[in-house]
Amino acid sequence: MNEKNKEGYIPNRKREIIKNFLIIFLIIMLILTFCSNTIMNKSLAEITTETATSGKLTERIRGSGLVESNQSYDVKIDGNKVIDTIMIKTGQEVKKDDVLFTIGTEESEELETAEDSLIELELEYQKALLVTPEDYSAENQAISNARDDLNAAIEKRNNAMANSGTAQQALYNYNSNQNELLRKTKILEKLQSTIIAIDSDNYSSASVEYTGDLVFLYNAYITAETDYNSAYQLYTTMLTGKPSEMPTVENTSENDENQSSETIQERVQTDNSYEIESIKADMEAKEEIRNNALNDYNNAKYDIRNDLMNQLYSIENDIDYLNTQITNYQATQGTGATMTVEDYDEEIRLKQQALETLIAELNKSKSENDLLTKTNMLEIDAKKKEVDKMKEKIEKLKEKSEITEIKSKYNGIVSSINVKAGEETVPDMPLAVIDIADEGYTVELTVDAEKAKKIKKGIEAEVVNNWNGDITAVLTDIKNDTKAGSKNRILTFSVTGDVSTGTMIDLSIPCGNGNYDTIVPKSAVYKDSKGSFVLMVNSKSSPLGNRYFAERVDVEVLASDEISSAVQGGITSGDYIITTASKPVKPKDQVRMKDN
To answer: Would you state the pLDDT for residue 228?
Structure first.
């Protein structure tokens, strides 16, 4: 190759290399352009959509309530007993005559038998003491006298034992009456102070548990009275050119009245835009508010005072009765010293000791003891030991308790147990509460008054948490909510099936069918501080294809069932609504459709 050809070859080769580089670069850029759309799509939230439809929808009211028994009874026992065994559990079904509890009592057949045996042993012992040796008439007479004293003491002791239960019960009733008198006296003082406070409209000394809403109603009336006085003064000032003098309520201070008058004068002098008719209308409106507030306060005041007076009369009667019972006890039992069984036992012991001493002295005085005397003394000692042994046995038996069974009076379900094993009962304390199953159960729900208009008595509600499928709930009553200011309604359902008191059930009540233009999945409706909304899919064209964006559309929920909601707003039937997403989606976010 000559020099000229070599010079021409080099520039051509350079151009070829540059051209190849440009082609490779363009190919790489084209690949990146097509791949970028795929890469971006992978980073977007993947969504699932459903189409808004139109048609029928059954609206439902949902709520939860506690099941309550229509009738129950309290399991009670008389006196103070110790709970030995609890044979039931809460929620357990029981039949009539099933054993519920076993309790301890102070008496038993074994104890009674032992006491009878003691009487016989003491009698045999006394008989053994009656054996006297011959030719000891004086000593025998002393022994006989001591024996008579002992028998008299034993008879007194037995009589005291027979009457001990009555005396103990009387003492127990006396102490109970004293405690009840103290409690009712405190209640009486509270009722009296509250009635005085109501009569004087000064509630500083009233008991808050008896005043109810009176303080609130009284303050509302005072406020309304003050507003009306201000409006009345402004109106009379506009008519006459000077403030009007009118009485104020007790809580309005002289300083506040002066400030109010000065303020009114300034308003009249500086603001000529007030119209007399407008001010008059304002005054009349505030007068009506004042009158209504006063009427509400007086009505509540009348009702509460009447109720408190009824309670006062009842408490006074109870106090009179308790004072009578206490006075009767003090008159019959409260004076004079009476001997207890223990005192008689000590007297018997001393008299028996005296008798035994006489016998011992007699034996010492004998110069000779024949076999009969020795035999009698041995028998006396044996009887004495038997008596002492039996006394010890009786004391041990008294420390024990016989097991007594408490049985159910009805078939039912145990709703609560109020005692524990080992605890001591008190009179009239319910050991347990049993719901009478045959009387049925009810549950109550509080709902909005407008929703309550859509349902009728007799409708059957669906029990959502009816796992066994045997619970039914039928609407039996619709009544007003008695809470002050409430516009709600209370729905009462009759419940049957496998339920018990305290069970929480979730109810879904059908309210009827309706045709709606736009129905969307219930899960697609969201709610925030601005209200309810759905996320709708909007598509935009681009050189690389359609792109999809989430758009917020505010809606009003008209009705709902378990799955769908009827709405109205900026969507129509056929629009695509986002139901689920692979990650959180906000309005205006770009998203990608899930591949079908």
So the answer is: 92
